[in-house]
Specification:
By secondary structure, the chain is of the alpha/beta class. The chain is built from 18 helices and 13 strands. A hairpin with a 4-residue loop joins strand 5 and strand 6. The protein starts with a helix and ends with a helix. The N terminus is likely disordered.
């Protein structure tokens, strides 16, 4: 009897397997056919027609080429990160001290790695907004300013563009300076906004096309979004004067335009954090309900920590709280909450009077080195015998110099002199040192004479 039961069980099992095979057959037939074991694998789901190969990032490609170059005098002038006069990354002593304190004593006296919450670390947000708007800013005193910790300047910009797309509508135009940082364009486009430009850089003077900028602000539809660089414009290094900012503010106000500011270089541009925030503070004083994205990558040297802050000015406390509620709703499904380590460092430095003073001196030291390299490069070009006008090298400000060199001249610098920079002629001044500035001046003269 046991043998009969086993036999029947096997028969039922075999029938069930055959039935299952029959049910799965259509699904198998719908999948790409596998080749023989010894042959090539079957074509995947994500074919090249469905998912084409994306273009390589131009900066990363430049770095790869530089790293493979074995020439002794090679120069990398493409990377947007500060280097000391030996060409090495620089860890600010104030940042190092703040990190040491946190590691030894914990955060607020407690060693923990708990979630920071959707809007991040409160002490960081409070310190960031005081740093940018001024500790005595009326919008802070009146509780009309809200803020959230974000993933550096890129994260702040993307959140801002998502906010505009959600509450102004997909396809709404956002006006950006021509040119602007390359990443601004996909940040806005991927959020669903339509890209527009306003005149900014004058190729004939290597300076600001102020009249063109003003004309485009006037011509834009009332209530348009205008993205502005608060200081040290990337990639040109060209900033409006304070008097020009006053005219720009008045025009923006007259047209009821929405102002979004990207501020990645406060303190790093001129060496004076208050001076670098002058445009922002003027716009707020003039009554603009600005949105600001701050980054602490350049001025604190915290590139990989991804430390940033987004803030918005409301007309009332109630409006500001509504804005904050919607920022939280945008952030929660995107990355839930931000990383904590870098934000704790910034808060520690900004809130401690001794470390704060030390940081100001260190940041000014970085800015001063960049200014020194601008002066040295200009002098070196003159010494080489260049008759071109290189005044813009010292007139521009911040990490980058928009040299005015053509793509062909940039290519020649790379192939003949092993000097790497982006095709638009943007020079990262941080890559220049007292040891290589003369070599750069010589090479630039040779390709531009």
């Amino acid at each position: 009897r046991e043998g009969t039961l086993v036999s029947r069980h096997r028969m039922r099992s075999a029938a069930a397997v055959q039935s299952l095979k029959g049910a799965l057959a259509p699904a198998r037939n719908a999948l790409p056919r596998a080749a023989s074991v010894s042959g090539a694998r079957y074509a995947g789901r994500w074919t090249a027609e469905k998912v084409p190969m994306g273009p390589a990032d131009p900066i990363l490609g430049l770095n790869d080429a530089y790293n493979k170059d074995t020439f002794e005098k090679k120069m990398n002038l493409g990377v947007g990160a500060y280097r000391d006069d030996n060409g090495k990354p620089y860890l600010l002593p104030s940042v190092k001290e703040a990190e040491k304190r946190i590691m030894e004593s914990g955060w607020n006296g407690v060693h923990q790695k708990e979630y920071a919450g959707i809007t991040g670390i409160k002490e960081f947000c409070d310190a960031s907004t005081k740093f940018a708007y001024g500790a005595d800013s009326p919008v802070i005193a009146e509780n009309r300013l809200i803020s959230a910790q974000v993933l550096s300047g890129t994260g702040g910009g993307r959140i801002a563009f998502e906010f505009y797309a959600r509450f102004l509508g997909k396809g709404v135009p956002v006006y950006m300076p021509d040119p602007t940082w390359a990443n601004h364009l996909p940040m806005a486009k991927d959020a669903g906004l339509a890209l527009q430009t306003y005149r900014y850089y004058d190729k004939t003077t290597y300076g600001l096309d102020f009249s063109g900028m003003c004309e485009d602000i006037k011509a834009a539809k009332d209530g348009s979004i205008f993205m502005l660089h608060a200081c040290a414009h990337n990639p040109t290094g060209v900033d409006p004067t304070l008097e020009q900012w006053k005219e720009i503010s008045a025009l923006l106000k007259k047209k009821n335009h929405i102002v979004f500011l990207d501020m990645a270089y406060q303190g790093f541009a001129s060496g004076d954090a208050d001076k670098d925030a002058a445009a922002l503070r003027l716009l707020v004083k003039d009554g603009h309900d600005v949105c600001l994205a701050q980054s602490f990558a350049k001025n604190f040297g915290l590139y990989g920590e991804r430390v940033g802050c987004i803030s918005m000015v409301g007309s009332t406390t109630e409006e500001a709280q509504r804005l904050l509620s919607q920022l939280k709703i945008l952030i929660r499904p995107m990355y839930s909450n931000p990383p904590i380590h870098g934000a704790r460092i910034v808060a520690t430095v900004l809130d401690d009077p001794v470390l704060n003073k030390q940081w100001y001196a260190e940041c000014k030291g970085m800015a001063d080195r960049i200014i020194d390299m601008r002066n040295a490069l200009k002098a070196g070009l003159a010494k080489e015998g260049s008759v071109r006008n290189w005044e813009h090298v010292t007139a521009q400000i911040g990490m980058f110099c928009f040299s005015g060199m053509t793509p062909e001249q940039v290519e020649k610098l790379k192939t003949e002199y092993h000097i790497y920079m982006t095709k638009n002629g943007r020079i990262s001044m941080a890559g220049i040192t007292s040891k290589n500035v003369d070599y750069l001046a010589h090479a630039m003269h040779q390709v531009t004479k």
